[in-house]
Amino acid sequence: MMYALVLGGLILLLFSGDLLVRGSVGLACKLGAPPLIIGLTVVAFGTSAPELMISVNAALAGSPGIAVGNVVGSNIANVLLVLGVPALIYAIACNQVGIRRNTFMMIGATLLFIAFAQSGEFSRGNGIIMVILLAAFLIYSGWRAMTQNDGEEAGLDDVEGIPSKPITTAGFIGAGLIGLPLGAHLLVTGATDIARAFHVSDAVIGLTVVALGTSLPELATTVVAALRKRSDVAIGNVIGSNLFNILAIIGITAIIKPLHVAPHFIEFDLWILLGISLLLVPFAMFHLSLSRLWGVTFVLGYVIYIAAVIVSGPQDTPAAPQANIPAPDVIHAG
Fold first, then answer.
1. Given 155, 222, 277, 295, which residue has the most CB atoms within 10 angstroms?
2. Could you tell me if 195 and 204 are in contact, meaning their C-beta atoms sit under 8 angstroms apart?
3. At residue 47, does pLDDT exceed 80?
């Protein structure tokens, strides 16, 4: 039953998120919003809606390990899998306009993420700072794209099946808004039950099952792009997604409910995330290409990381319950 909850919740999340994105884009187009602004706001928030709902539900359910692990694991999977697998098919060129600037912004967000985590909690103040930085990034990106004419794209090329009829648009948005919280509830419940059954931490579940599941749409998209010999779009999407995951998902979730950070994240996973993020710097700086050899290296690195997480997970010790929140009967990382 718990596996069915995870699978059903994941499918419902991905399907509902897709409907919400398409419906929201249809509404924005009807209202006359520029494609650039839609791309930077509606599409960006919509595609991250499943991860956001998972993290918020997990935090409110007293399973912060799933919330934090979802973001950390997704960002690691984005670099090693979402870039590694398509690189096995067709080399990824890293010469897009603005890639250096956005890469260093992503590294900066990752460093801020790690710095805030050192206290053992993402507070509401931390969340507010993250959301302010996200807003600044979106405003700056929109301003630069519209005034500097540097060729950066933030449009709707990846969004298909945008509804044209008002009733269809409303139906897509309504179904997305209903399906997302329901799917997140099912997935978090199932993931927590799995953690109980196998005596592992909710952090391990967040880093593996949940993170990999929410990265599947991006992986599928980049594989299709690689088969069409357009895999160069992958790196820009990964950099943007990772930056958004940190600032938006952790930021908004922490504002709603401060997040406890288990020691295992601070001692191990966050530094792995930083090291993997830094791997992209030389490619962005010198406009190198991710060859098949790098693809093999990235995918192998992900397999090794997941194996390390699974092996070390069952030995974790319980974390103290958060104040006024009944802790689930699982062993927290650390």
1. 222
2. yes
3. no
